[in-house]
């Protein structure tokens, strides 16, 4: 599914909003599609750059339109609103996170309990490294507050990532049913996320940055032993 | 130490800022002190009410001054700036959290490993209940971004709370030295905080609210077993 299709699907699944009529042209030729896809790519790249440079709070539609050389009204021909754009950016970051987890842990053995625990540690370390290397985009995923319900495709993008935790966890905790496994995977994710997010903010009460990797591994192993 | 003394100490420890001259009157009579303390109390109460009603983001000095019936300039005779006020509010919330932990867990036995683990679970549950009952004020502690370094008294208010974790943890992990114990207490805190904060936001990927208490207890026991 390309991003334009994703966006179209999104418009349908989100709660109704006032969208300029031009956002759904009656005739869409392949040429229009390809041009709109290119504009959407440029818009997402501009948004990612601005989020990395100055954070989510100061992101303005007007600046983004200027970045890619279109009028503000033209921006709403590409996406329905800023929420739609930020969801696409968030989803692209999650997709990269999933790819990083697959690349780094997908080949690791997962047959025995010990193997599964070590694979889970590797998943946690992938998450730490990804957060560290993509700090503003990673933060943005959690800072994003939408005016409308999360569309189904975005929900699936988030839930799909949990298989990286659930697969080893099902070996470690074979007695859990599907519901129990889902909850336990979320508990472990939130625990590791908590250590990393407070740690990378370098708050007074944080686990020191140079200890994050060890402590995340300790928690994962200790919780699963 | 009362809040006016705390504020005075704070002004010294924070990085220099432009503060109206009237903020440090040359003669402070007991009457002035008592009046200023009463004004500070009213100001903090007004800030807490507004944070609970509409969150930290929309808090404005002008509104707070109006709430307690003084001019905007008068507000800066009471506190140096909004950061100073928010730190005092944050600190008062932390103080209440510490009192809740002492009241609910201080009397629990802590001699054996099992006792210490159950005391730690009780500390985690106190934190969950406190966060639930004081959601906007609790969130504010973590949302607060200061322009200046954290003053020493505020740092101590935060670090002091960790004894509720470190005391049972020192029984559970007797081999850790002071530094190791500090880091481990922070790891456990951040893990439990992560589960609770994602959970209470009721995000898609959250541990369901009705399962939070069980999962926090599971994680604490599993990590310490």
TrEMBL record, chains A, B:
Q: Indicate, by first and last residue, each region the UniProt record lists as having compositional bias (Low complexity).
A: 15-29
Q: Which SUPFAM superfamilies match?
A: Homeodomain-like, Tetracyclin repressor-like, C-terminal domain
Q: Where is the composition biased (Polar residues)?
A: 1-12
* Pfam family, any one: TetR_C_33
Specify the domain of life of the species encoding this protein.
Bacteria
**Which Gene3D superfamilies does the UniProt record give?**
Tetracycline Repressor, domain 2
Identify the stretch(es) annotated as Disordered: 1-29
| Entry keyword set | Transcription, Transcription regulation
Signal peptide start and end residues: none
Task: Name it.
Answer: Transcriptional regulatory protein
Which organism is this entry from?
Asticcacaulis biprosthecium C19
